[in-house]
Inverse folding.
């Protein structure tokens, strides 16, 4: 079992990473709660809800199950979860447990942040991608016009990561999660990036996976401790997301997974970095790695004009200037503002020449 600690502006919380920790969840309740609401999705409920409920056998537990997938991260599901919480009689001494991937984590975390102006919540991530979403306290729902547009910073009181749950993930979800791990390597560590470029996702061992998750969580934890509210270095965690989020919204959420959209965004960030800084980042190696691991790279149904419009309302933008995270070299991220026309021209040539 690996134990890490993260300091947020309001409290310090533990991240427990290990096999079978979902069976001992009760040990990590930091106080006696009046009741507990487990929020999960219908896929995860079938696989992992019983174990979590068993471990909370001595608590007053309620469950709300949402439909699996990105489209649930919306205002209607958010409102329904508040209705559930009121009807179950949750009070200010209640706890929310987010059992699932990043969708459940972001949504349940935002419900916890807003219910009666805020109650405690615990993240119990069940996807590879959620090594990223469960740490750092960004909680949100999507708006039709933009990804994660309605949200807050609200750190969990604990993160209980049972890596055993990851054995039921589909290939799509494995590749989605690895896109964020590649991102973390690109912004921090060239040798980890090179190691990742030498693996095949359908051949990863459990030990390799644990090593990668631990790496990703440490990168994330260090950054969010330094800049929780994203006024500086936290922006680096958004590498690949300016375009990635635009693609997700343009495709009405769920056609590509978050990680798949970020993967395309990472390629674009490397492409623009090469042009802007006249450097030779490993764009070709990354493209080959994505192709070898079956990442979908076809976004022909999106036009560069519409994507640029979406990028202008990204959260990093000020006065509609598009801000992108770029790399001067692997491990050296930076941010740069652009006029629309420049990004439009880069995006057109990227779509024609790189991912065609
Ligand atoms: N808050 C943050 O810092 C942050 C960081 C990264 C991503 N995100 C958000 O996270 C979301 C993506 O998260 P995700 O990829 O985990 O998506 P997800 O929660 O939709 O999970 C992906 C799919 O895997 C299924 N699943 C979950 N656990 C499973 C398991 N153990 N076995 C089998 N199937 C399982 C789910 O039911 C779903 O169908 C996006 O909304 C993204 O914006 C947030
Ligand atoms: O934690 C962060 O900060 C990140 O940027 C991590 C991203 O992987 C994540 O997708 C995040 O939700 C994006 O944040 P947003 O502020 O651009 O919505
Ligand atoms: Zn992300």
């Amino acid at each position: 079992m690996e134990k890490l600690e993260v300091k947020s502006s309001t409290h310090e919380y533990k991240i427990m990473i290990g096999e079978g920790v979902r069976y001992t969840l009760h040990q990590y309740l930091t106080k006696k709660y009046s009741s507990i609401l487990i929020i999960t999705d219908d896929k995860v409920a079938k696989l992992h809800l019983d174990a979590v409920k068993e471990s909370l056998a001595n608590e007053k537990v309620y469950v709300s199950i949402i439909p699996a997938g990105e489209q649930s991260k919306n205002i209607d599901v958010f409102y329904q979860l508040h209705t559930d919480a009121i009807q179950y009689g949750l009070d200010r001494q209640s706890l929310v447990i987010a059992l699932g991937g990043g969708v459940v984590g972001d949504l349940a975390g935002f419900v916890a942040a807003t219910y009666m102006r805020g109650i405690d919540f615990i993240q119990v991530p069940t996807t590879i991608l959620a090594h990223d979403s469960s740490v750092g306290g960004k909680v949100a729902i999507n708006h039709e016009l933009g990804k994660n547009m309605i949200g807050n910073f609200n750190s969990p009181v604990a993160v209980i990561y049972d890596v055993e749950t990851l054995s039921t993930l589909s290939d799509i979800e494995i590749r989605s999660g690895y896109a964020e791990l590649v991102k973390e390597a690109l912004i921090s560590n060239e040798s980890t990036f090179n190691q990742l470029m030498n693996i095949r996702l359908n051949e990863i061992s459990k030990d390799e996976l644990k090593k990668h998750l631990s790496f990703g969580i440490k990168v994330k934890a260090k950054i969010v401790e330094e800049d929780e509210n994203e006024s500086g270095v936290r922006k680096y965690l958004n590498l690949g997301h300016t375009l990635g989020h635009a693609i997700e919204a343009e495709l009405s959420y769920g056609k590509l997974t978050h990680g798949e959209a970020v993967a395309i965004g990472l390629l674009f960030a490397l492409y623009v970095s090469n042009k802007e800084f006249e450097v030779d980042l490993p764009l070709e190696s990354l493209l080959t790695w994505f192709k070898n691991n079956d990442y979908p790279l076809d976004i022909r149904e999106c036009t560069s004009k519409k994507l640029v419009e979406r990028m202008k309302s990204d959260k990093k933008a000020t006065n509609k200037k598009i801000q992108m995270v770029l790399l001067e070299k692997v491990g050296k991220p930076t941010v740069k503002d652009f006029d629309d026309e420049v990004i439009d021209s880069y995006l057109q040539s990227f779509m024609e020449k790189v991912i065609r």
About this structure: The two ends are 44 Å apart (CA to CA). The first helix runs from residue 42 to 55. The longest strand covers residues 146-153.
